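Extended Data, panel c. Modelled sequence:
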Amino acid sequence: MISLAGRDILHAWGKFVFTGIGLGLLIGVTLTMAGVYRGMVADAQATLDNSGADLWVVQQGTLGPYAESSSVYDDLWRGIRAMPGVAQAANVTYLTMQVRAGNRDVRAMVAGIAAAEPGAPGWPPYLVAGRQITRSHYEAVADIATGFKLGDVLTIRRNQYTVVGLTRRMVSSNGDPMVFIPLKDAQQAQFLKDNDAIRMQRRRSAENPAFAAPGVLAAVNASQASNPFVNAILVRIQPGWTPPEVAAPIARWKRLTVYDRSQMNHILVGKLIESSAKQIGMFLVILAMVSAAIVAFIIYTLTMDKIREIAVLKLIGTRDRTIAAMILQQALVLGVIGFAVGKISASFAAPYFPKYALLIPSDAVAGFAAILVICALASVVAIRMALRVDPAAAIGG
């Protein structure tokens, strides 16, 4: 059988190519949106993996430390460390803020890590350059996504920190790169005020008789200089113990909330990312509908342009299924061209996307199958119209 679809495509190849490119750019956006969702899930998984924790001990009744604020006393880790099944326990604080280096600033999650050996919970598990933090103040390890380099001086609140190490893929659940500093510095940074605010607070305290007593002024100054709270205590359990076995006594006796890995993953993916996932899902549906409309329109237009030729084919005895197959093949070819252009454009655009976009093969396979189904459905209107063509139209002119 002569390939009617192929001959017709060659006859109108320009229209097919340009339509395929336009459809491909639309498909590229669709694949990129799916990659953004995958990237959000990957960022959440990276946050949990890089913490090095089996359990997260947070303020009772909160979803901390990533989904909402949590505050626990920084001396509780000693009691938790002595609990059965606990191998390591370490304080940690998280603060999302603008970190300045020279004339530019970067939005980052500043993590305060307790003094310990590298590999402890909360510490960056590996470096790509430099060394880990060895001093108790004014040193930092930054993710390379921040653009900082070894030796750069960062300004966090009123203090300055020297970048001594660089790490990779250390990100928050929102995709912000992380900067690690000593715990005491991070605790101070959470509530540290600027110089003007401190002078204003001292003046207000001096003018108010209720705060003029030396003991009260000393307490105010002490509260400004120290912060006895952390956001969470990261716990690593001993071999042979299960997370529920270790978590239950901590929650019971310490009156705190304890999450294991599966629970924290549910909080990050099921709660933080849920609304974004719904938005992305709606965009994917809209883009699929637009793609179907484009394919249906172009195939219908091409079919209308060759009504007389279809009538001639029917007049000489060509079967309806042959004509239907020709139109279906044209729609599928259009979908294949569009998918090829879309996959290439998405692969090139993903690294430059503001959000981390993770393109995985299974999504590409599912997208290709969806495009073929959409193109097949979009050709139905043109096929129905072609099958209703009267063979006499070939003679009537």
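Residues 13-51 form the longest helix (39 residues). This feature is highlighted in the accompanying rendering.
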